[in-house]
Amino acid sequence: MYNRDTRDPIRGQAVECPPGRLLLGERPIELTPRQKEILRLVQAHQPITGDQIAEMLGVSRPTIRSDLSLLVMLGQLDAKPRVGYFLADPAEPATPVPWRDLRVGEVQSLPVIVRETTTVHDAVITMFLEDVGGLIVADEEGRLQGVVSRKDFLKFTLGNASATSLPVGMIMTRYPHIETVTPNDLVVDAAKRMIEYKVDSLPVVQPSSEDGKPPIVVGRITKTTLARLVAEWGTNWR
């Protein structure tokens, strides 16, 4: 199941792959026990959603996001919106997406959103409960209003006893003075943008079809997400 006939994309020659491994180009990749279990679950229950897979594994959906992305890139799984994951057609040759072509939409996580009127006190509690370094501020339609970071909270509350009762809108960085990415942007470009603007995360948005209106927030991508991807790739590459 895991040893699909793979050919060297440059020379067109068959490449031998050790048992229990897959090939990315000429590089063998060893699947983790969790990735093998995901393939087993998909084979038994296809089509199956990411949430259902996570529930069967006893983990959260974000925990297996990079595993699912890797298996799709390796040609082991296919996925369709509102349908779920299923085993890729073995008759079709594996065509892994090079790392440099990985899109934000394949690795983005759910946004943690508060309203502009949320108090600083409630926003700080939300940030720690969700274990994130910052929050996205959006309106009732999900349109981006601003972002607020842990540093913003610290600067605003130190020495200001009444700060916690004030609204987040007073300390957030307002749109359009915010760097964003779209699901179709390259992950490598998102990483470069974080480095350039010295931020820990970026809102993932869909541009508005209505002139003058802010974009819709659909996710976020963070340095933690990027670090997890690097760790996952480093573990799998042999």
Would you summarize the structure shown here?
This protein is 31% helix and 18% strand. With 238 residues, it is of the alpha+beta class. The chain starts with 20 loop residues before the first strand and ends with a helix.
- Radius of gyration, whole Å: 21 Å
How do the SSEs run, as a string of H and E?
EEHHHEEEHEEHEHEEH
Query: How large is the count of helical segments?
Result: 7
For the record, the CATH architecture of the largest domain stands as Roll
Mean pLDDT: 81
Q: Which bin fits the share of residues in helices? A: 25-40%
Strand content: 15-25%
Shape: elongated
Q: What separation lies between the terminal Cα atoms? A: 20 Å
* Beta strand count: 10
Largest sheet: 4 strands, mixed
How are strands sequenced across the largest beta sheet?
5-6-7-8
CATH superfamily of the largest domain: CBS-domain
CATH class of the largest domain: Alpha Beta
Q: What is the total domain count?
A: 2
Structural class: alpha+beta
Stretches with pLDDT under 50, minimum 5 residues: 1-21
CATH topology of the largest domain: CBS-domain
Keywords: CBS domain, Repeat
Protein name: Putative signal transduction protein with CBS domains
Domain CBS: 107-164, 172-238
InterPro entries: CBS_dom, CBS_dom_sf, CBS_domain-containing, HTH_11, UCP026546_HTH-CBS, WH-like_DNA-bd_sf, WH_DNA-bd_sf
